[in-house]
Structure formats: C-alpha cells, structure tokens
C-alpha cells in the first residue's frame, strides 16, 4: 500500500529557538543564564536510573538534568545503549528513577502519585515508538489500537464519542477513518507510524516523546512523517522530546539538542550553536559521521573516533559548565581552558 495522505504536509520549519541548559552543580532544574521567561513543561532534575540488582547495579542514566520548554522540540542524541530510551521511559513513568526528580507542568511526576495525578500524566504524556512494524498489536484492528488509551479509567466516553475521537485522530495524521476496521499488516511502514502517532494524538497530549520515530522508515517517507509531526506541533502547540541516533536528523527539527554518552549528557546547546561550535570530542565525532553531500569532500573526510580515555578526571573533576550562554559542556577545569581557547580560534 502506498502512502495515503489527506492533508498537505508543509515543510518542517524549526520552531522559534529558545535557550536554556543544565547545570549539574545547581540543585534546581537546569537554568541557563540566557534563558528567557519561558514556561518549562518538563524538568528532568539530576536523575539516575539503575538496572540489575542491589549487589550488581548497572547505572544506565547518571545525573542527567535538562528542561524542555513548552512548544519546543528538544533533541536527545547518542549512540546505541547511551540511555536515551531509558530517559524517555522514566519520564513516562515506566522506568523508576533511583535519584533525582522529574517534574511536569511544575509538579513532581516521579515516585508515587495520587490516582488522579497518575491519570492526568497518562493522558498528557504520550510516546511514539521507533519500530512501527513491531509496536502495533497485530491482532487488533486499527480502530482499537488508536482508541486503546481512551479505555483507561478517567475517560468515561460513550462508544460514539470514542469513535469520533478515533476518526478525528486518523484524519489528523492523514489517514482515512475507514482504516479503523483494518489490521496493521495491511499498512506500509509510513502508514503504521501514522497509526502510532494517531494513537498518541487521540489522548490530546501536551507532550510527546518520539523515540527514533523515523529510524525504521524508508528514507523516502521519513520527511513526510517529520513534516506531519511539525504540522501537529504548530497546530496544537505540542512539545516534543525527539530521540535520535545521529545528529543529521535532529539539526533542522530541534530547537535545542543534548548529546548523551554512556548515560551522561556531555553537551547541550541550541541546534545551530551545537553545529557551529561543537566542543566535546564525542559531539565532534558524531558530527564527523554525518555524510556530506559533496562526494569529493566525503571521500577525503576524516572520521573522528571518540576515545573516552582523553579525559583525565582522577584529580580535576568534571562538572556541567555553561561555556557560552545556553551552551553547556561536561568538562573539568583544564578542559574548560582548552574549550575556551577553541572558541577563540
Ligand atoms: N529493562 C532493562 N534491564 C536491564 N538493562 C536495561 C534495561 N533497559 C535498558 N537497559 C540497559 O540500559 C542501557 C541504556 O539502554 P537504552 O535502551 O536506554 O539505550 P538507547 O540509547 O535507547 O539505545 P538505542 O539507540 O539502541 O535504542 C543499555 O546498556 C541497556 O542494555
Ligand atoms: Mg532506544
């Protein structure tokens, strides 16, 4: 089946850029000296996530802090196993955190919550998954898949109201309401991802965690899904956490980007700033991996490989520093001097 869209998809334009950042030294949520008075919708505050058992704990996410402003797209980028999904799942309350706090709309959502609070969060925060081929229940019809969240306690909708919501959600993502009676296997990858987006949208969320939403899709339909997400964001004032493997995808859709390596954020800045002044060797390595359109340039390009042993943190300990307004980097004093001189070259 080919892509079947009912609404035009405007080109993805970056939302108005905003500035903020994280500061591991502060006890409050990350706050940049350049941050405007913009509402923080999500605040991730020094969180740690561990797996394994008490004797052999494995720290998947370590002292991670960032804030996401209402209406922005915040990118989280890093290699496989760096903890991106774990952070997303912590926000959506699937993975418990062992340290720190997560706040949504100014209220704590980590730890134990009242039933009403839990229902509110279950509605307001939705997730879109990486692989639309495996994330949809094959035995359920599309109508049920999209409606599923509406069956949760607290909704009390009639059958007719539910159907109306589902039909609207399908139309909103460029699918036809008639698709409700079909099964997921009848759809292409791009359409399946649209079903995944409709499933999130039907809940009228405020915040969507998109976990590598286009990685599994054919290159030709990636832009369509990005454009759809961008349009929905504008129409509904949605806020996104956009998780990706590499920097090329996030450059044009994210206002700010955090680069994560082995469970720790190593650099955080506005997208263009990060591309103009990448400082951390891991960010530089990720940037060097982006293919260049010019084959000659590409042929002679030197791929940078990140070697974590370049950091000597035995005595001079690292922290998250704001090196330029809104641009944060994980470094010790010696490295800060080096990064400052790189900026002045
Ligand atoms: N439920 C779990 N039990 C044990 N270890 C886990 C669990 N979930 C994640 N991990 C481990 O935590 C680390 C971070 O995993 P996570 O899935 O968050 O990485 P990721 O950045 O999303 O990777 P990818 O790009 O491959 O999706 C990995 O080492 C992973 O093996
Ligand atoms: Mg993941």
Describe the overall structure:
The radius of gyration is 21 Å and the shape is globular. The chain has a single domain (40-343), classed as P-loop containing nucleotide triphosphate hydrolases (Rossmann fold). The protein is α/β, with parallel strands linked by helices and 345 residues long. The longest helix is centred in the middle third of the chain and has 18 residues, at 219-236. An 8-stranded mixed β-sheet has the order 6-7-8-3-9-10-12-11, sandwiched between helices. Helix content is 30%, strand content 23%. The chain is built from 11 helices and 12 strands. The structure holds adenosine-5'-triphosphate (ATP) and magnesium ion. Residues 51, 60, 78, 80-86, 245 line the site of adenosine-5'-triphosphate. Residues 84-85, 211 line the site of magnesium ion.
């Amino acid at each position: 089946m080919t892509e079947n869209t009912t609404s035009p998809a405007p080109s993805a334009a970056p939302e108005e850029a905003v500035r903020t950042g994280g500061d591991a030294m502060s006890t409050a949520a990350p706050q940049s000296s350049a941050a405007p008075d913009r509402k923080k919708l999500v605040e991730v505050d020094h969180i740690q996530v561990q797996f394994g058992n008490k004797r052999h704990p494995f720290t998947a996410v370590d002292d991670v802090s960032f804030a996401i402003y209402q209406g922005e797209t915040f990118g989280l980028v890093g290699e496989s196993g760096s903890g991106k999904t774990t952070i997303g799942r912590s926000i959506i309350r699937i993975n418990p955190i062992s340290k720190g706090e997560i706040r949504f709309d100014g209220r704590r959502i980590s730890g134990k919550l009242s039933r009403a609070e839990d229902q509110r969060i279950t509605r307001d925060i939705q997730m879109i998954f990486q692989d639309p081929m495996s994330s949809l229940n094959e035995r359920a019809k599309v109508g049920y898949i999209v409606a599923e969240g509406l069956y949760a306690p607290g909704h009390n909708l009639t059958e007719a109201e539910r159907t109306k919501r589902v039909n609207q959600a399908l139309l909103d993502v460029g699918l036809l309401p008639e698709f409700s009676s079909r099964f997921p296997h009848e759809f292409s990858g791009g359409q399946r991802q649209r079903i995944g987006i409709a499933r999130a949208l039907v809940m009228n969320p405020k915040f969507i965690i998109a976990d590598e939403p286009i990685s599994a899709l054919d290159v030709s339909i990636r832009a369509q899904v990005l454009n759809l997400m961008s349009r929905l964001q504008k129409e509904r004032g949605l806020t996104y956490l956009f998780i990706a493997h590499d920097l090329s995808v996030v450059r044009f859709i994210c206002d700010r980007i955090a680069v994560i390596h082995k469970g720790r954020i190593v650099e955080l800045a506005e997208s263009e700033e990060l591309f103009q002044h990448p400082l951390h060797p891991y960010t530089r390595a990720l940037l060097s991996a982006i293919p260049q359109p010019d084959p000659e340039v590409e042929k002679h390009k030197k791929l940078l490989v990140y070697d974590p042993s370049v950091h000597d943190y035995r005595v001079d300990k690292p922290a998250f520093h704001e090196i330029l307004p809104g641009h944060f980097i994980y470094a010790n004093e010696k490295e800060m001097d080096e990064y400052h001189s790189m900026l002045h070259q």
